[in-house]
């Protein structure tokens, strides 16, 4: 491992540590007290985002539960570089938010989504509510009308341009890129999926009663699905793939489903942009998800480029030895929690050994290029099922995206 790689790995340990998290929280609370500011939770709403339709339904209940001031903003939507394939992104967001709403007992958005005229009407109504200080009281009803195709009344409306410009500026200045997000004391919480983290933080700070979360994390069940298959798309450079890998492996084993591994190139190696704000959020979000799941994380050695290519070069060898799952698991664990440098023989040898393979035999396959055809076919398949990012799944004709959607994978297996 080079000196530069070593420094980056140690920096990642620090950035994802509990200790730094505590220090950050102490700093933000101290700053708040010195400036004599109230406890403010900033919320960013994109009327055209179906996930925001879900958050709109719990905003007032959240405000009523905690001694904080929820400050809402209206925003325009994500920048182009944050959404590489807007059409596929919109389609997946609609399907996923509908599944999530059903799982959580929330009102579903419509299957097709609103047209631009309806979004414009909703934004005008929301901008008026912002002016009147009644956003939290009105957002749920306005969102319901928008996402069910109901008619908007001829009541007060306001040009939303200024409100969206202010919201976009504030979102960017805080360091994020997408709607449905909550910001409090230096940390981000995206959508109803992560609201439980914010609730836990506020309860620990004495700002609310010790109550069950408004939106619980869905549990997995012990279901049987013999004869069915889980296509699992992942990349060695994706920390979310790492968080998902052993869990979906266990899900397949427990349910009796066949696990079909489909590694793809990381987005950056496919020419897809990943904004800095997005990568920063992903790192910290993965750290807290790993802590909740009890998964080791943080000693990172980014395998982007040569590390990924060398790792993929051994896929066929691992498959031939009947150790494909073990090898992929060991690689992901090695680069995301053990700081192993896959671009070096020493680092990759340790990964290979942990997978139960013989390094002296495996190393002879490092120059092979056969893996490129396998990966390209998987990428074509990923595009065919309407997705582009990982970890993703194809189960019973359904496309599912996200390490936090294993409950959806399980539901699809038994549907």
Descriptive keywords:
415 residues, alpha/beta, Glutaredoxin, 2 domains, four-stranded mixed β-sheet, 18 helices, 53% helix, 10% strand
Task: Give the topology.
Blueprint: H1 3-15, H2 18-34, E1 40-45, H3 50-56, H4 59-65, E2 69-74, H5 86-104, H6 116-132, H7 135-148, H8 161-174, E3 181-184, E4 187-190, H9 195-204, E5 229-234, H10 239-255, E6 258-263, H11 276-293, H12 306-313, H13 315-320, H14 324-337, H15 345-354, H16 359-362, H17 371-384, E7 392-395, E8 398-401, H18 406-414
Q: Percent of residues in beta strands?
A: 5-15%
CATH class of the largest domain: Alpha Beta
Task: Quote the distance from N terminus to C terminus.
Answer: 48 Å
Shape descriptor reads globular
N-to-C SSE series?
A: HHEHHEHHHHEEHEHEHHHHHHHEEH
Sheet/helix structural class: alpha/beta
Query: Uncertain runs with pLDDT below 50, 5 residues or more?
Result: none
Short account of what is shown:
The protein has helices at residues 3-15, 18-34, 50-56, 59-65, 86-104, 116-132, 135-148, 161-174, 195-204, 239-255, 276-293, 306-313, 315-320, 324-337, 345-354, 359-362, 371-384, 406-414, and strands spanning 40-45, 69-74, 181-184, 187-190, 229-234, 258-263, 392-395, 398-401.
């Amino acid at each position: 491992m080079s000196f530069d790689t070593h420094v980056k790995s140690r920096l990642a340990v620090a950035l994802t540590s509990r200790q730094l998290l505590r220090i950050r929280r102490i700093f933000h609370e101290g700053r708040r007290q010195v400036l004599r500011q109230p406890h403010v939770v900033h919320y960013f709403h994109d009327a055209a985002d179906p996930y925001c339709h879900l958050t709109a339904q719990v905003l007032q209940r959240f405000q009523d539960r905690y001694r904080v001031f929820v400050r809402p903003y209206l925003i325009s939507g994500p920048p182009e570089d944050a959404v590489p394939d807007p059409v596929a992104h919109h389609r997946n967001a609609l399907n996923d938010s509908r599944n999530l709403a059903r799982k959580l007992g929330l009102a579903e958005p419509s299957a097709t989504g609103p047209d631009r005229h309806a979004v414009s009407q909703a934004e005008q109504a929301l901008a008026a509510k912002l002016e009147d200080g009644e956003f939290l009281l009105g957002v749920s009803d306005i969102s319901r009308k928008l996402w069910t195709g109901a008619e908007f009344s001829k009541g007060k409306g306001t040009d939303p341009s200024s409100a969206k410009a202010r919201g976009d500026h504030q979102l960017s200045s805080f360091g994020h890129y997408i709607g449905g997000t909550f910001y409090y004391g230096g940390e981000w919480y995206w959508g109803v999926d992560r609201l439980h983290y914010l609730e836990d933080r506020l309860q620990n700070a004495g700002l609310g009663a010790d109550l069950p979360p408004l939106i619980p994390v869905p549990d997995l069940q012990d279901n049987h699905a013999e004869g069915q298959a889980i296509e699992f798309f992942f990349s060695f450079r994706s920390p979310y793939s790492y968080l998902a890998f052993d869990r979906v492996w266990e899900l397949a084993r427990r349910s009796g489903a066949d696990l079909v591994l489909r590694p793809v190139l990381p987005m950056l190696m496919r020419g897809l942009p990943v904004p800095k704000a997005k990568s920063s959020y992903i790192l910290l979000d993965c750290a807290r998800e790993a802590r909740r799941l009890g998964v080791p994380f943080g000693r990172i050695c980014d395998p982007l480029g040569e590390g990924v290519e060398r790792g993929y070069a051994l896929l066929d060898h691992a498959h031939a030895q009947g150790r494909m799952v073990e090898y992929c698991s060991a690689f992901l664990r090695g680069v995301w929690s053990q700081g192993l440098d896959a671009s070096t023989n020493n680092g990759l040898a340790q990964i290979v050994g942990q997978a139960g393979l013989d390094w002296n035999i495996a190393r002879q396959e490092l120059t092979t290029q056969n893996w490129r055809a396998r990966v390209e076919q998987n990428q074509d398949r990923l595009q065919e099922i309407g997705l582009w990012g990982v970890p993703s799944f194809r189960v019973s004709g359904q496309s599912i995206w996200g390490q936090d959607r294993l409950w959806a994978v399980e539901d699809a297996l038994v549907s």
